Amino acid sequence: MADAGRKDFSDKIAEGITPDSQKSYAQQAKEGVTDGLDKAARTLQPDNTKSTSQQLGDSVSSGAEKGASAAEGSGKSLEQTASEYLDSAKKAVNDAVEYVSASVSGASEGAKDGAAATKK
C-alpha cells in the first residue's frame, strides 16, 4: 500500500500490464500526469518520512527507470537489451551443460580404461 497522496502500487501495476493500444487518450493522459506527480513526490519526499513499503516501491520504480534509460542510451530497445541478456544466459547454461557432459563422459571412459587394464 502506498503512502497518503501517492499513487497506489496496484494502480501502477494495472497500468503497466494494460497496453497503451487498449487505453483511451484520456486514460493515457491521466496516467502521464499521475506518474509525473508521483515521480516528483518520490524525488522530493525524504526517505526518512516514507513507509518501508513506499521506500521499496520508490526504489523499484527508480531502478526500472534507470534500466530503461540505459537501454535507450545505448540505442537499443529494452526488448533488444533483454534479448541479449537472455542469449548470454542461454550460452552460459549451454556451456555448463557441455562441461558437465564432458566431465561425466570422461569419467566413464576413464573407468572403462581402468577396468580393461585390470583385466589384463
UniProtKB/TrEMBL annotation:
Compositionally biased residues, Low complexity: 61-77
Chain spans, region Disordered: 1-79
InterPro entries: HSP9_HSP12
Comp. bias (Basic and acidic residues): 1-14, 32-41
Residue spans of biased composition, Polar residues class: 45-60
Protein name: Uncharacterized protein
Organism of provenance: Cyberlindnera jadinii (strain ATCC 18201 / CBS 1600 / BCRC 20928 / JCM 3617 / NBRC 0987 / NRRL Y-1542)
